[in-house]
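Hello again,

I reread your note about wanting to compare the complex against the isolated chains. To keep things tidy I'm splitting this into two emails, and this first one only covers the full assembly. Below are the input lines as submitted, including protein chains and any nucleic acid or small-molecule components. They are followed by the predicted structure of everything together. The single-chain runs will come separately.
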Amino acid sequence: MNSPILLQPDETFILNVGPQHPATHGVLRVKMEMNGEYIVNAETVIGYIHRMHEKMGELKTYPQFLMNLSRMDYLGALGYSHGHVLLVEKASGIVVPERAEYIRAIMVELNRVASHLFWFGAFVMDLGGFSPLMYALQDREHILDMLESVTGSRLTYCYFRFGGLCNDVDDNFIKAARQFIPRMRKSMKKYHKLVTGNIIFRKRLEGIAPLSKEMCRKYGASSAVARGSGINFDVRKNEPYSVYPEFDFDVPVYHECDSLARYMVRMDEIEQSLRIVEQGLDKLPGGPIMPDKKPKLIKPPVGDYYQAVETARGSFGIRLVSDGGKNPYRLKLRSPTYSNMHLFDEACQGMMIMDALAFMGSLDLVIPEIDR
Amino acid sequence: MRLTLLNVIVAVVLAIAFAALNAAYLVWAERRGAARIQRRPGPNINGPFGLLQPPLDGIKLMAKQLTIPGGADKIMFITAPVLAMFPAIMSFVTIPFSDSIVAKNMSVGVLMIFAFASMGSMSLLFAGWSSRNKYSMMSSVRAVSQAVAYEIPMLITAITVVMIAGSTDLMEIVHQQSRSFLHWNIFPLLGNSHNILMPFSFLIFFICTLAETNRAPFDLGEAESELVAGFHTEYGSMGFGLFFMGEYANIVIGSCMTTILFLGGWGCPFGLFPGVWWFILKLYLLIATFIWIRWTFPRTTIYGLLNLSWKILIPLSLFNLLFTAGLIKVF
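Full-complex prediction:
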């Protein structure tokens, strides 16, 4: 215990970053083998917040499991619920009214903006700039207020039902959403002025942590991590679902492969999400939000079903094996952050600790989503 | 003789009180300023405008237990926070706030202040080394390399000013810039030097002050998103409080020096009513700039910081020194 710290020049030491560390934003632990400030090896250790969502999926009936999905990723909860309801509807052949599909898309995109805003603030905070977090949270607050007025909750929503929604949107929501879009666009300009154009910020991200296309493919990375490395993949475009084919939006792709590219992708995605919300509000059809005919008990026929959706954090896949019973035989959740995070071990070798932690921020990790 | 001694003691005590009061209330000012920048209220509950916050924070810190981690070097661990506060307070003794308000004027004032300022990095080294914590260690190594890198351009710039003034006496340096703001060392026109590079000198000095005091964007020593809390990770209670106060006392010293060397000390910009109020005004404007910068910019990297010093600031300040020397020789 009291032996002095003696280090030979070629000797390394182990640095435990986490599970309680400001940079990991949750209970992720990274065991780093360090040579001075340089990382020789890193090993991410996960499982500190494992809640057995998959097992719960097998034990609970389908409607009972609805609320679990929003507990997976507390920042972009609606995207995950969306995947689940789409899958169960596909499996049991429930037809969703068009209005419900549009409202779902609007809500998911608003939630994506909220999630990206939080990430933006936390990322800049990782780099030592505090004020953008406060500005981003204020913008996010508007979204949360809007979502609360419709869904009833602010963070862990349970809004989607098999076949539709539990609540219709009212005129207040539509008015608020229409007001929000230009305000958010104005804020984005401010963020680009304050943060993106800042020379210190750019110097810290440009050319840092280059992830090659091959590496992203090898680890199954998605979302901004893949799109920042030049992979044009977005589930909304490549495997269209819900009403996304009806919308006109772009998938931002950058080819620089560095942390700045990942940052730019997410910032551009906010604008694209706003475009989807705008179009959704314009096209919003009337009609019911729940189908007339819906089976009383949800019992998908025997089979193997899969549905992927693009959440704020990437391609979220959910696989359901049904034995025809009232709860699934097996429910597998493919979380995008899990794949994105494992890039870190390989990519951070030889990096300085400051750059590595900035790189980790650019991956947009939400730990409960990794551990499930 | 006895009366003079008494005068000195009273002045020294007042200097210490000024340092401590400033340190405490700058924390409040910083929190209020940050809150204003971030569009939130900040501390506003305790007393009017939250003005009772600093003493209450002090009481809270003092009521806490000072823990010394197992395996820590006890003597060094206890000495470090004292060393953080001591040089800052000592520097106040020789700073002239006006013609008459100075605890002890010395003919080598500039030298003395820089001598004490360089002691500051020692406390960071002690704290980081003795804590026996890897984060603290890395932080203290960073802080020392940073201090070494930024003391050089800072000193060279100070020497430039000393060359222009022909004196290391802080009083004398201020007197030479006393007529109007055009005679301040920062302005090249009517000043003593006719040196068009002086605004750059001022910038170099200001950047170095930021780095010397471990302030954002150069706060690599405590880089909380990487090194948890840096060198004071293991400190609680008043040990932490002293580091905190030392940081703010150093900011005041840095701003005082900038005011004296470049902004004409207590001289009025228009040559009217010179007095301590002008000094205070300039001092707090500079401190407000410190706060403003901290809450606007992200942090630099350690290599970016060292590159800035060794590759840009040191060559520039050296060139400026030679240029000034040439000008003095010619005119």
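For quick reference: Residues 2-330 of chain B form one domain.

B.
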